[in-house]
Amino acid sequence: MEINSNLIIFLSELRKSIRLMGLAVILGTAGLYLISPVILQFLQIHLDQELAFFTVAEPFLAHVKLSFFVTLFVLMPGIMYCLWMALGKPFKLSEKTLAWFVLFTTVLFYLGAGFCYSVTLTYGVKFLLGFQSSQLKPVISINKFVNFVSIFILAFGFIFELPIFMVFSAKVGLISRQAFERNRRYAVLIISIMAALLTPTPDIVNMLLMGGPLYLLYEIGILILKIMKIGNT
Fold it and tell me: For residues 58 and 32, is the Cβ–Cβ distance under 8 A?
């Protein structure tokens, strides 16, 4: 009953921010669409890729999609603020605690996105395109390219926040540190499923590129709980 009550309070508080954030996303997408060709060119140069399109509307839709994803990236501090303010109500978290949660989740999101952009994405693209030959040449769709890059970067940003949400779960009494330690095998299973769902392509390489760091973050979360002595039962 208490869980249902907390969920209702959380959703009620979150709903207050949805309209404002929705409007910000729409305006941001419209504004960033004007410079989306520059952003796309920047990504192409970074990953050393030439793109093609196969339908009349594909370039336009790809630029809109890219603008939308970049808007989410830019607005992430505000999104995290709204999320934690909503979570703070049912669990009665202090403003100081919420401020720390907002700060660290935002920092970890950008660290994860930066790590993906500079390391994982570059390596993954080179590996996957390494199978080309004189008989097999890649022709990459602009739509597929935008999907792959954007979803991969955002997904890595979100998974880097795992330790913070583990700390939150232990702090409010949802899951104890011992429960995290006992259920490592289930964590591996869930992480594998998440990696399969979040990666743009369902191949084992992309799953490992995401699943490996995600499990490492799980262990880091347990270590943080031990150091801070949170969630002991």
Answer: no
Please work out, in degrees rounded to the nearest 5, the angle formed at the alpha carbon of residue 153 by the alpha carbons of 217 and 206: 70
The mean pLDDT of 87-92, rounded to a whole number, is 82
Token readout for 193 is 């499923």
Average pLDDT over residues 143-147: 91
Q: Which two tokens stand for residue 16?
A: 């207050």
Residues 6+ apart with CB under 8 A from 17: 82, 85, 86
Look over the chain and give the mean of its residue pLDDT values, rounded to a whole number. Answer: 86
Residue 228 pLDDT: 82
pLDDT at 36 over 70: yes
Tokens linked to 116: 């993906």
- Extract the tokens encoding 214: 């995600």
- C-alpha span between 67 and 167 (Å, rounded): 33
Average pLDDT over residues 151-163: 89
Percent of the chain with pLDDT over 90: 34
Q: What is the pTM of this model?
A: 0.86
Place of tokens 């769709």: 141
Run of H or E including 136: none
Burial class (CB in 10 A: 0-12, 13-18, 19+), 112: buried
User: Are 149 and 155 within 8 A, CB to CB?
Assistant: no
Q: Which stretches within 34-140 are classed as H helix?
A: 36-47, 58-74, 76-91, 95-115, 121-128
- Token output for 127: 């590996």
What is the distance between the alpha carbons of residues 74 and 66, in angstroms, rounded to a whole number?
A: 12
pLDDT > 70 in the chain, percent: 94
